[in-house]
Design goal:
Homodimer. This is STRESS-RESPONSE A/B BARREL DOMAIN-CONTAINING PROTEIN HS1. One of its GO terms (biological process) is pollen tube adhesion. By secondary structure, the protein is of the alpha+beta class. It has a 4-stranded antiparallel β-sheet with strand order 2-3-1-4. Helix 1 runs antiparallel to helix 3.
């Protein structure tokens, strides 16, 4: 894979386990957002829920997007103790997640 440069988008799709209370999901979302205060490499964090009319979500209901300035910043975030602790707890309530990192490219 070629080395790419530029802003890095870290996308997480989450499908939560059946029976997990909405309050529990909201608690984890707040903890995820708070990582911006603990990990300097995170430049932005946004999240939302599926609003598609195509019904192709395959049970994934939540999407989270974090922005980093470089691939190295993304790697530092993944290894950061605050992220590791959060991710471990998050995985206990998630049935399935998909993680994709990409560098946005301009139209050609």
């Amino acid at each position: 894979m070629e080395q790419v440069k530029g802003v890095v988008k870290h996308i997480v799709l989450a499908k939560f386990k059946e029976g997990v209370a909405e309050e529990e999901i909201e608690k984890h979302i707040k903890e995820y957002a708070n990582l911006c205060n603990l990990i300097e490499h995170m430049k932005s964090f946004e999240w939302g829920t599926d609003v598609s009319i195509e019904n192709l979500h395959q049970g994934f209901t939540h999407i989270f997007e974090t922005t980093f300035l470089t691939l190295e910043d993304r790697s530092a975030y993944v290894a950061h103790p605050a992220h590791v602790k959060f991710a471990t707890a998050f995985l206990h309530i998630a049935e399935k997640i998909v993680v994709i990192d990409y560098v946005p490219r301009p139209e050609q």
